[in-house]
Design brief:
By secondary structure, the chain is of the alpha+beta class. The protein is globular, with a radius of gyration of 21 Å.
């Protein structure tokens, strides 16, 4: 039996998923690791934590499936995008990785825009304006603020590509993940000589770029011992987490789309051409389908917002869930379901880590607006879910302005497994929301499908998706509920412009 291993190096943890040639999930395992925030708006992780999590996760899925290492035909990698991993001349991380949700590099974004010859020229070169969440500004921040670390740096990798290096010894990436570095010419699918020159970054620091299903390395003998895989097992280029999720959901043809409620939130639509938002509010990247693209709007704090709420304000509920042997998120669903639409006149802005679409503001901050002594934990939980749904509606609106108007969306990510949250998103966005049976496996399942293509089980990504991806019937908008959400959404949209000045003033204190 041929098996394919998908590994998703996420923000909260690393997930491994093992599937057979029919797409059946044989085993799945997630190992969490810490997120460090040494200052407000900063986000870092220790790359060694990722490696230890990968070892444990891979061992667990093989053990749970009752299989040995030689059962794995091919490995696919995916993970959080945009993170900066700087390596010295011995391939050791020089400092903690700076993550996608880190907003420290706003000054470097201004610097990049000037160096590139202006905002329009930067978009021409890499399809996107300078954003603090992307990789290049993080690299410039290290150069401007940690010169000693920058002078030690010989290689610059993305998170999943550091794991690949440890597995295969190869410096490699894929077109979808490279797209988010702001050093890659998304339209022509190559490193941008113009931007590398403008930003004074040596091409030798960057990996070679492959299409997602291409084999670009094999597990080395030393890595086989370390990770519990067979030496020589091929590893495909893989994809950034959203592009891999699209593969896992089967959203790989023109106009097909999904909505993700992972740590970040995404509205993603596949495109055969590199469509652009002239205002730069939505991102245009290469997709995991060779020679094609996707457009997506991103909210920084989706599932991250609910996790923050749970960790910060729900200590008693966490203990209660533990004692009852229940999921604390299921209990939050129950409490939130008892609160009405609009959360009893309470609105949450999910800008805990700044915001991308549509504000492009790393200094935006979260808020509960309308909070009173009468509000309950359930009201607050529902407000968080609704605030994330409204931020996703903002994303859908921007895509619509660019002419991308999907008739339905497939839900993916941990939040997408919540029936209540899907119903809220469906009505807040006034759009049908479908569910894939593999939604809980997220990007890791898509990485496994890419491995199935690279391993020879399918001739193309589209063929693999046609054969192995299915969807359940859609959740359709309810006219009355959608109208009520529209009223609350109008108030939500007015809050950021009203509060922006205060948010920025707070950042200066």
């Amino acid at each position: 039996m041929s098996c394919f291993l998908g590994i998703d190096l996420g923000t909260s943890g690393l997930k491994s998923v093992l599937i057979d040639e029919k797409g059946k999930v044989l085993a799945s395992a997630t190992v969490e690791y810490p997120l460090y925030q040494p200052q407000n708006g900063w986000a870092e992780q220790d790359a060694d934590d990722w490696i230890e999590a990968a070892k444990t996760s891979i061992h667990t899925v093989l053990s749970d499936a009752g299989l040995s290492a030689d059962a794995v035909t091919c490995v696919g990698l995916t993970g959080q995008m945009h993170g900066l991993v700087l390596l010295d001349d011995r391939d050791r991380p020089i400092r903690r990785a700076i993550l996608w949700c880190d907003g420290r590099s706003s000054a470097e974004c201004d610097e990049m825009t000037v160096r590139a010859g202006g905002r329009d020229k930067l978009i021409e070169y890499c399809a996107n304006p300078a954003i603090a969440g992307f990789t290049a500004s993080k690299a410039l921040w290290v150069r401007n603020n940690e010169l000693e670390n920058w002078q030690k740096a010989k290689k610059m990798l993305l998170p999943k590509d550091y794991l690949r290096l440890r597995m295969t010894g190869e410096y490699a990436s894929d077109a979808s993940d490279a797209s988010g570095m702001q050093l890659y010419d998304v339209t022509h699918r190559r490193w941008s000589d113009e931007l590398l020159k403008a930003f004074e970054i040596d091409r030798g620091m960057l990996p070679d770029v492959y299409e997602s299903p291409e084999v670009c390395g094999r597990v080395t003998a030393s890595a086989a011992d370390e990770f519990g895989l067979q030496a020589g097992t091929p590893v495909v280029a893989g994809a950034g987490d959203n592009a891999a999720s699209a593969v896992g959901m089967g959203a790989v043809r023109e106009g097909e789309a999904f909505v993700s409620i992972g740590s970040s939130g995404v509205v993603y639509a596949h495109s055969s051409l590199p469509a652009l938002d002239p205002l730069g509010r939505a991102h245009t990247f290469c997709s995991a389908v060779p020679g094609e693209w996707h457009m997506m709007g991103v909210t920084q704090g989706a599932g991250l917002s609910l996790k923050w709420f749970k960790d910060t304000l729900c200590g008693g509920l966490v203990e209660k869930a533990k004692a009852a042997g229940k999921s604390v998120y299921a209990m939050l669903d129950e409490l939130a379901a008892a609160s009405p639409i609009g959360s009893n006149r309470l609105i949450f802005l999910p800008y805990l880590m700044g915001e991308r679409t549509p504000h492009l503001d790393p200094l935006a901050r979260g808020a509960f607006v309308g909070l009173s002594a009468s509000h309950t934990l359930g009201d607050m939980a529902r407000a968080v879910m609704e605030g994330v749904a409204f931020s996703l509606a903002d994303c859908l609106g921007v895509l619509g302005e660019a002419g991308v108007k999907p008739k339905s969306l497939v839900a993916v990510g941990g939040g997408g497994t919540s029936a209540l949250w899907r119903e809220i998103v469906c009505n807040a966005m006034n759009t049908e929301v479908e569910l894939s049976p593999t939604a809980a496996e997220g990007a890791a399942y898509g990485a496994a499908l890419l491995a199935a293509v690279g391993g020879g089980a399918f001739s193309s990504v589209n063929d693999a998706c046609s054969a192995l991806t299915v969807r359940t019937p859609a959740c359709s908008p309810n006219g009355e509920r959608a109208a009520r959400y529209s009223e609350v959404y109008g108030i939500y949209r007015a809050l950021y412009p009203t509060m922006q000045k205060s948010m920025h003033s707070l950042a200066k204190i």
